[in-house]
Design brief:
Largest sheet: none
Strand content: under 5%
Oligomer: single chain
Helix content: 55-70%
Structural class: mainly alpha
Number of strands: 0
Length: about 140
């Protein structure tokens, strides 16, 4: 009888801990989304994007918050944003895919490579015509 009470207590503790952990995770994600502000310094944005990549890879709302950073004027932010989008694997609309494929015309080869790697994970058959000319490079 004692072991049943002990087992029951451990199960309740585990459920309570999980619920508290889920609430804490949601609060951390909201705090991270607050840092997704174009006015933030480059280092803060990159750290925040890394946080989404590591801690919230299955967030349903993160892709919409991260997509505008693909158009950022800072190359490091653009590259990190497209890599995080590849992790999140969202269903992008035509405008979002156009923003991503616009990065393929960058003179920075590392940026082009990051976009090509991201497009592997984003289901986007409409981007194939933009990719084909790059195969000769």
């Amino acid at each position: 009888m004692r072991w049943r009470v002990l087992l029951f207590s451990l199960c309740l503790f585990g459920l309570g801990f999980r619920a508290a952990s889920d609430e804490t995770s949601a609060a951390r994600e909201q705090a991270a989304q607050a840092h997704l502000n174009p006015a933030e310094p480059e280092e803060i944005l990159i750290q925040t994007l890394e946080q989404f990549e590591i801690e919230f890879p299955d967030s349903p709302t993160a892709a919409a918050k991260i997509l505008p950073f693909v158009r950022d004027e800072r190359p490091k932010v653009r590259r990190k944003a497209v890599r995080v989008l590849a992790i999140l694997q969202p269903d992008l609309d035509e405008k979002g895919l156009a923003d991503v494929t616009r990065m393929l015309s960058s003179p920075d080869k590392a940026e082009v490579v990051d976009v090509l790697k991201a497009l592997r994970w984003l289901y986007a058959p409409s981007t194939i015509p933009s990719i084909l000319p790059l195969l000769s490079d």
